[in-house]
Amino acid sequence: ETGVTQTPRHLVMGMTNKKSLKCEQHLGHNAMYWYKQSAKKPLELMFVYNFKEQTENNSVPSRFSPECPNSSHLFLHLHTLQPEDSALYLCASSQDLGGVGNEQFFGPGTRLTVL
Amino acid sequence: AQKVTQAQTEISVVEKEDVTLDCVYETRDTTYYLFWYKQPPSGELVFLIRRNSFDEQNEISGRYSWNFQKSTSSFNFTITASQVVDSAVYFCALSEHNFNKFYFGSGTKLNVKP
Predict the structure, then answer these.
(1) Which of A75, A85, B34, B45 is a Cys-bridge partner for B75, taking CB atoms 3.0 to 4.6 Å apart?
(2) Radius of gyration over alpha carbons of chain B, in Å?
(3) Per-residue confidence band for B102, with pLDDT thresholds at 50, 70 and 90
(4) CB contacts, 8 Å: A91 with chain B
(5) What pLDDT, on a 0 to 100 scale, did the predictor assign at position B98?
(6) Residues 6 or more apart from B57 whose CB is under 8 A from it?
């Protein structure tokens, strides 16, 4: 595997379900990110992790719970979601947060539908 | 106020035409980075270019070129001799001195017709 991978690619869940999105980067990067992309809206940064430590929580509702067990893996745990949470969830990584290495590399995304 | 504005929601051109995608940004920082990404129908954002605020030289990479103008806070992207494979949504983004923050524009959907 190369680059940034995400599983599952598609997910349909009910509002009472609990599910998790997984992201893995094979680039040796230190920073990882979760974004939400809704139709006709800019990408919304949700969470940022640097060396496994959360450095940013962009006022995300608690029904989204991130987990970063190591620099290569990032999870997004979902529970009691709302239909408006349906979106494409993108994971990204970058070598570092700042300086010359801060371009982000994205995974293919998980298309989430909440019924 | 939006940090990154891409005023063109959707553009349609015929193959081989040149097309310019506009990006205007807003920041008070003197150190910042600008980016362009391409998102094809598959969904994955592909990194195209990074430009730092101290380097105003225009850049050309094959059919792609970028025009960075600090005086007008713009970072426009031109595709020369467009091809059908260029059809995608293109995002401009800004990273400020606090590099936790990435601001993406709303994207410009480019349709290149044969």
Answers:
(1) B34
(2) 14
(3) confident
(4) none
(5) 66
(6) B68
Q: How confident is the model at residue B14 (pLDDT cuts 50, 70, 90)?
A: very high
- Quick one: tokens of A15? 């509002």
Residues 6+ apart with CB under 8 A from B91: A43, B6, B36, B37, B38, B39, B45, B104, B105, B107
Beta bridge partners of B75: B68
Q: B63 is written with which tokens?
A: 């059919």
Q: What is the average pLDDT score of chain A? A: 90
Contact residues of B toward A, CB < 8 A: 2, 4, 33, 35, 37, 42-47, 50, 91, 95, 99-107
Taking the C-alpha atoms of residue A91 and residue A4, their distance in angstroms, rounded to an integer, is 8
A83 touches B at CB < 8 Å: no
Least CB–CB distance from B44: residue in A42, A103, A106? A106
pLDDT in tens, B26-79: 998 888 899 999 999 888 899 999 998 988 888 888 999 999 999 999 999 999
CA-nearest of B111, B108, B61 to B86 is B111
Which 3 state secondary structure label does DSSP give A84? helix
